[in-house]
Design a protein that fits this description.
Layout: E1 13-15, E2 21-23, E3 31-36, H1 43-55, E4 63-69, H2 73-83, E5 89-91, H3 98-102, E6 114-119, E7 125-131, H4 140-150
Parallel strand pairs: 3-4, 4-5
Antiparallel strand pairs: 1-2, 3-6, 6-7
């Protein structure tokens, strides 16, 4: 089944950088933006994460922003430290890609697609954009969709 705008966001619990442990259902009452990416340390993924860091102010204070990739937590910690990002990057390493699979963005080669998914305060999907693998996603359409969801 393909995830669509208006669907209930699949729940998950993942470990992340800086010791984060995130369970989606515990975030009710806040908007959540999930930024899936294929591979830590790759050029386009590095640009994607630094772009998020530079533009996260376009989202309100009531929005939590996360990166999600299939790399292990130790690699993600090193990468996040190197990039200087202050939002958690979550590890979908084991079971490998299970969250990306729930969200319909796991590729056959075992990496996540480059996707942005916005979830509102009630846990409903409000925005989905799967980008070409070599293109950094534009966050503005997601910010606009999330703003409309809370208006």
């Amino acid at each position: 089944r393909t995830l669509k705008v208006g669907d209930e966001a699949p729940d998950f619990e993942l470990r992340g950088t800086k010791g984060a442990k995130v369970k989606l259902s515990d975030q009710r009452g806040k908007n959540v933006v999930l930024n899936f990416f294929p591979a830590a340390f790759s050029g386009v993924c590095t640009m994607q994460m630094t772009n998020i860091q530079g533009h996260k102010s376009m989202f309100g204070d009531d929005t939590l922003i996360f990166g999600i990739g299939v790399d292990g937590i130790f690699a993600l910690d090193a990468w996040a430290n190197q990039l200087g990002v202050d939002f958690p990057i979550l590890s979908d390493f084991y079971p490998h890609g299970s969250v990306a699979e729930k969200y319909g963005v796991l590729l056959p080669n075992g990496v996540a697609e480059r996707a942005v998914i916005g979830i509102d305060k009630d846990g409903k999907v409000r925005y989905i954009n799967v980008n070409p693998i070599l293109e950094v996603p534009d966050l503005a359409p997601c910010a606009i969709a999330m703003e409309k969801a809370t208006a």
